[in-house]
Amino acid sequence: MDDTRHAVVLWGATGQAKVIDEALRGTSFKIVALFDNRPVPSFWEHIPVGYGVEAFEQWLSRQVNPREIYAAPAIGGANGKDRLYFLDFFAERGLRILAVRHRSAFVAEDAHIGEGCQILARAAICACARIGRAVIANTASCIEHDCVVEDGAHIGPGAILAGEVYVGGNAFIGTGAVVLPRISIGKNAVVGAGAVVTRDVPDGVTVIGSPARIYLKRKKGKM
């Protein structure tokens, strides 16, 4: 590898890390370290996975110039709270926050993209869309004109947000779901795979089906 490339550390060492790795190919960034809360195997033989915050702190203390290192949470799904936590965790330690934008993604010139977003293969962020911090726009997802996607949300593979949709913080829109124009998705809500959302979704519920209906309400005080 070219040693002039920017070093990247990821928190999370499973599927989302693999996706980020592919998105960074051909760029000036290379992944040099992986960490996770679980003792998972590395998908690279030459980069072992460090386990837990203590291992990360030890690794960071050995770096010659930590302020030149980029970092990203490689945490997908309905885990926006964790993505936001690690965004702040990295920033507090002086690391640079990595923004991931796949070479095949489309982002309109007048779209606003927040810190630490991951816009993956063939995703489209269209005119006047506003995307918060630590948002994932997964493979072939479409966030249409004037949508607002709040911090920590994840738009799953092939999901479509039609124009002027609002997605609350840490919500998850599942694979292939369709949200019709001017619908509001509440914070911490989950839209199941393939659902067609025709009416507003309250905070903290899971909806499934076509048309989407409430399947599960989260207990008060629980995530």
Provide an overview of this structure.
With 223 residues, the protein is α/β, with parallel strands linked by helices. Helices cover 15% and strands 30% of the residues. The protein has three helices and 24 strands. It has helices at residues 15-24, 52-61, 80-92, and strands spanning 6-11, 29-36, 49-51, 70-73, 96-97, 100-101, 106-107, 112-113, 118-119, 124-125, 130-131, 136-137, 142-143, 148-149, 154-155, 160-161, 166-167, 172-173, 178-179, 184-185, 190-191, 196-197, 205-208, 213-217. Strand 1, helix 1 and strand 2 form a beta-alpha-beta unit. The protein is globular. 44% of the residues are buried.
Key structural traits:
3 helices; 30% strand; 24 strands; eight-stranded mixed β-sheet; alpha/beta; globular; UDP N-Acetylglucosamine Acyltransferase, domain 1; 2 domains; Rossmann fold; six-stranded parallel β-sheet; 223 residues
Work out the strand percent.
25-35%
Query: What is the highest CATH level, the class of the largest domain?
Result: Mainly Beta
The CATH superfamily of the largest domain bears the name: Hexapeptide repeat proteins
Write down the Rg: 18 Å
- What is the strand tally? 24
Flag low-confidence runs: none
Major sheet: size, sense and barrel closure?
Answer: 8 strands, mixed
What is the correct CATH architecture of the largest domain?
3 Solenoid
SS summary, helix count: 3
- Overall structural domain count: 2
- Which outline best applies? globular
**Neighbour order of strands in the largest sheet:** 6-9-12-15-18-21-23-24
* Protein structure class: alpha/beta
